[in-house]
Amino acid sequence: MRIIEIKTAQDFDKLKTIEKKEKVMIKIYDIVSNITISAIDLNKFQGMIYVVFVNPKRFYKFQVVAKSTTGNNFLFSNINASSISIFQNNYEISYQVQDDTFFLSKDQDFDQLPKVLLPKTKLKLKNDFILIRKCSPFYQGAIIDGNYHKIYGKRKVISSWIRQGVVFKNASLVEVDQILPIHHFHDLNLISKYPKHKVVAFLTKNIVRTKINPVCLDGFYGTLFLFGNGYNIDQVELENNDDTSIGLISSISSYANFLCENIHISNLTFPNSEKENIGAILGEKRVPNTKYITVPGYTRFQNCSVKKTNIPKSENSGVFIGKTDEFTELFLCSTEKNNGISPSIFSGDSYFDENHLENATYYFGEKRIVIPSRKLRKEIQ
């Protein structure tokens, strides 16, 4: 007979090693009580288990997480082919039924998960995900179904999840250098401290009823991922600047890669001043003054929207971006009740628009140029 001693919560993992037809005695010590564990599946076990509490005068309490309360016995589930004997009755067990799948949209959703997950529980992503926290032992062996989304995180953070045996399914892992929470929109100015890095910036709350001084990122040459993270920008007034371009971000270097996702804007107000390039999110992809030939970065707006906003007319006016180049895309973006220019306008030299290929026109009615081959674009890695 094999004896398994349970002195800590981690020792319950030893029960997963029992073989098909052996006899096992489980000795549970005083210090193991008032804990939560997942039910041990005995579906393949056909032997005998004897449970002994080392201190018969102690009352033991356990919470056992299982798919259902039917078919459970003590700390186990699926016990049909096995036999369990308990020599004392000084214990109490409450069963907690747990779903097979939990949906996550942002890092804070981990705080809503139970502390113990069943072995086959899936964590399923609703959207591209920013992974901020290192992996807790609670999630050891968990399955994260990316639902074909991307997961962004620093190398040390991603590595901590892999070391805990977490399985990433249907997900692309993207290592980044910096992750910046945006509590106020001017926090985006911090991006200039990392001019050549791969940076993720994300909103931490709704930005409403405030004035914003447009952010200039002319000196940024890296990759910027900007995420709404489930929050909105509403009733914001842009302050006047000395630049020839204006938007929440007045300009960014043409070298930079810029991916903007789930940014939703409504009731944005522009200053009463003439600008050459105007866009709600980005005024201009700006080419720096240099004698060298530059390789433009890739720009993509995905699942973004601009509503109830008057876009002033200018040399280059666009709902999402003013002046841009052929390495720019719109994907699953929407506009509604915007005045001043056509709702589908996307100004600039040329671009690739997944939504409006047939109706794509300049403000003056000219047909916009669409890049015929995606191989010509510089992709964000």
What would you say this structure looks like, in words?
This protein has 381 residues and is mainly β. The chain has one helix and 34 strands. A seven-stranded parallel beta sheet has the order 16-17-20-24-28-32-34, with no helix packed on it. It is elongated and about 85 Å long. The C terminus is likely disordered.
* Main sheet summary: 7 strands, parallel
Give the count of helical stretches.
1
Distance between the termini: 56 Å
What order do the strands of the largest sheet run in, or round the barrel if closed?
A: 16-17-20-24-28-32-34
SS-based class? mainly beta
Task: Find the count of extended strands (DSSP E, 2+ residues).
Answer: 34
Backbone shape: elongated
Fraction in beta strands: 35-45%
Return Rg in Å.
28 Å
The share of residues in helices is under 10%
Regions with little confidence, pLDDT below 50 for 5+ residues: 341-381
Q: What brief labels describe this structure?
A:
381 residues, mainly beta, seven-stranded parallel sheet, 1 helix, 2% helix, elongated, disordered C terminus
Gist of the model:
With 381 residues, the protein is mainly beta. It has one helix at 155-163, and strands at 2-6, 23-28, 35-38, 40-41, 48-53, 60-66, 72-73, 76-77, 83-86, 91-97, 101-104, 122-125, 129-130, 143-153, 167-175, 178-182, 198-203, 207-212, 215-217, 223-227, 232-238, 245-246, 249-253, 257-261, 264-266, 277-279, 282-286, 299-302, 305-307, 316-318, 321-323, 328-331, 334-336, 352-353. The strands form eight sheets. It has a seven-stranded parallel beta sheet with strand order 16-17-20-24-28-32-34, with no helix packed on it. Strands 11, 12, 13, 14 and 15 form a five-stranded parallel beta sheet that branches.
